[in-house]
């Protein structure tokens, strides 16, 4: 231990299973990336090409912050879009900035091909033990699923707490305790205990609350700073927030064929990255009579731009309003607030008119 | 004493206000430039309204604010309603034109489209990231061509052969305009071309994917421009309604909401004489360094916002450092 100080950029709360995977499975020290703030974005924007998508800027900024925090090995992955070039370019930028660190680009690995994953891990720590990783990987994966289920419950109930903030507090404690978990048994115990606690929190949900589904690009939808805490804003308005996109659904249990079949009347070809999931979920939310859909993406995200005409068709067919957001490096909230408030007023008045 | 309601719409470029009676008939109205000083603009506006307003027979019982400075002015006037401008415009328009299906709104720095069905907003969109094709762009081009903004529309109507000007982006439009002027295109043709470019920009961006059904109501400052109105009619194939008070609809809408809120509070025009100041503080408690805005009334802190978390909450009344 101690030789490799490894880090991976922040994405929601996934630092918890990553920490366990790195420390227990790969036998390396894990450097917790500093929380995403305005400074992260400023650092990232300073060294990024101006027109690159915002997640590139956030992750580059976060890499620099983790180096400042002591990391000497940075890990980046790929995806079905420009994300595949992130590692190559970020590694070069970090080298040009004269940081003396290792950059491990996992773009070649495929989660479906275990051997490529193994090769990737081997690159992070050549002395890793297959036994250790085989022992901890199932725990980390299950942890991701539990966390996602937990957060899903919070999103659907946070707007109706009797004592605002109670769910968030338990979530915080839950994550802290998960960091100490090492076995499936401990994991199951912790999960069940906290799920019970979180379900015990008093919520006053009306019979027919406003429901909004969130869809869109991978990073922006999952990293709350980058979407201006849109889920929190919606919850504060008293809205049930539904989001399918998370690591469990998109990577662990993704069923592309089912999606393709479901959306065949709207999109025949896969447009890459999260596009199919976006359309699939929009259609499902529409069929389930949700009050509205919010589409989030970083400015210039090509696969998500491609979904927009399809979303407009779904919106017209099912008479469901869709609000579109493009985020870049602006940090002022006022324009976003205005659009969200108007969206709330609109879906509220539509609902009242229906009843 | 009869009841009346004050609606104020504080936009980036102009500030508008109306006072309405219980039937929403306008008793007083005013329109001035914001000049980057919303507090100062509202003070001047209130002094002007005070002179028009029949204080013997009417009293203002509640205030509504809208527009990008709605929160700040809401605190200053102790407003009963602080509402976003999209909803305010929809409420104002559907009051005046209950059958309206589509609202085009182009203001100083933003533009929006609102679709209505049976008096209910069913969809809307607002420009993102970019202020191309808004009032600020037209007025800067008018300035460049040495034409008063008010004459712009009339000159555009004289054109028989509008120049084609790139609509996609303000920067491209401007360089296109300069080139065409240097090539010898007539001024009225260029001006008509600009009006067309505002309209195609609007329909291609804000209006993208929206089904535009008549009756169409056009409002916001740019609706005063006859050239843009004509370009809209040609592009959509429908007549476009422009209300004589088309620049005041947001203020009217929020005055209506103020009455509907039934939240009555005493109001006096004397707040125009009270000193309101604002100050920014960098929080400094974490790397996020939120910019917190503090609002002082006669040096006493009355409100603060801008913090993203509890650590930055400013609760105690503090006096503004001299």
Write the layout of secondary structure elements.
The complex is a heterodimer of chains A (355) and B (322).
Chain A: E1 5-7, H1 15-25, E2 29-30, H2 38-47, H3 54-68, E3 73-76, H4 83-96, E4 102-105, H5 114-124, H6 130-157, H7 166-178, H8 184-200, E5 210-216, H9 218-222, H10 230-236, E6 239-243, H11 247-252, H12 256-262, H13 275-287, E7 292-298, H14 302-318, E8 322-327, H15 334-354
Parallel strand pairs in A: 1-2, 1-3, 3-4, 5-6, 5-7, 7-8
Helix pairs in contact in A: 1-6, 2-3, 6-7, 6-8, 7-8, 12-13, 13-14
Chain B: E1 2-10, E2 14-20, E3 26-33, H1 38-52, E4 58-66, H2 70-77, E5 81-82, H3 85-96, E6 102-106, E7 111-117, E8 120-126, H4 135-144, H5 149-157, H6 170-183, H7 187-204, E9 216-219, H8 226-236, E10 240-241, H9 249-261, E11 276-282, E12 291-297, E13 300-305
Parallel strand pairs in B: 1-4, 4-5, 6-9, 9-10
Antiparallel strand pairs in B: 1-2, 2-3, 6-7, 7-8, 11-12, 12-13
Helix pairs in contact in B: 3-9, 5-7, 5-8, 6-7, 7-8
